[in-house]
Amino acid sequence: MSSDLPAETPAAAPPQQMGAAYGLGRFLIAPLARAVYRPHVEGRENVPRTGPVIFASNHLSFIDSIAIPVAAPRPVHFLAKSAYFEKWASRQFFTAIGAIAVERGAGQKALDALDQQRVLLEDGRAVALYPEGTRSLDGRLYKGRTGVAFLALQTGAPVVPVGLIGTDKAMPVGAKFPSTSERITVRFGEPLDLSPHGPATSGRARRGATDEIMAAIHALSGQELANAYNEAPAQNPIERIKQVLPHERL
């Protein structure tokens, strides 16, 4: 596989300081969420308590990005689309649960998002990512995009695979509020050292590392495999051609 990723990324801005809103969120929101949803958590002992770590999870529901920070034994940061930060109340909530605003998209936007995650990891923090790229609407596990593996190989951070079960029932796509009657399960797998696959600049290494991550997620979630990428329907002939032609999905 050829590579269009840079061998080295330029220096990025210092990691965002989460401030009082995040501290308050960790103190209030996480215990409240645990009390209301009673998540069944497995494998917390697998999560490194210090140093950089990447949580790589399946993605079934909007509340996945709340379930992981609530279940993890350490603070976790994830990227959320910038539209969530436009209103004051929404901005305070997403900041409180560890979200960082990002312009979502492919190409350069995807590389910029990865660079933000890299800076957080270099600061010794934990980040959560979804290798599928977007939520699964049919409950199947889709092929992983290589951005997570690229980040892990570039930084040397271990990857903790995560299997989420039941979040799609707790808050189905289209629901305005989560249900309190559904109990979810969060499974943390053993950390993966992906360095044997090779350098981040190798397309073969990124693909192999991605496949290892997805196999670990599948073992934890037990989902049916889709054997395809989770992509939005092509809006025009050019997009349709791009989806059909072999290329690396970040």
Offer a few descriptive terms.
250 residues; alpha/beta; Glycerol-3-phosphate (1)-acyltransferase; five-stranded mixed beta sheet; 36% helix; globular
Tell me about this structure:
By secondary structure, the protein is α/β, with parallel strands linked by helices. 36% of the residues lie in helices and 12% in strands. The protein has one domain (19-231): 3-Layer(aba) Sandwich (Glycerol-3-phosphate (1)-acyltransferase), CATH 3.40.1130. The chain contains eight helices and seven strands. The protein has a five-stranded mixed β-sheet, with helices on both faces. A two-stranded parallel ribbon has the order 3-4. β3 (78-81), α3 and β4 form a beta-alpha-beta unit. It is globular and about 45 Å long.
Task: Write a short abstract of this structure.
With 250 residues, the protein is of the alpha/beta class. Helix content is 36%, strand content 12%.
> So, the CATH homologous superfamily?
Glycerol-3-phosphate (1)-acyltransferase
Helix content: 25-40%
How many β-strand runs? 7
CATH class: Alpha Beta
- Biggest sheet layout: 5 strands, mixed
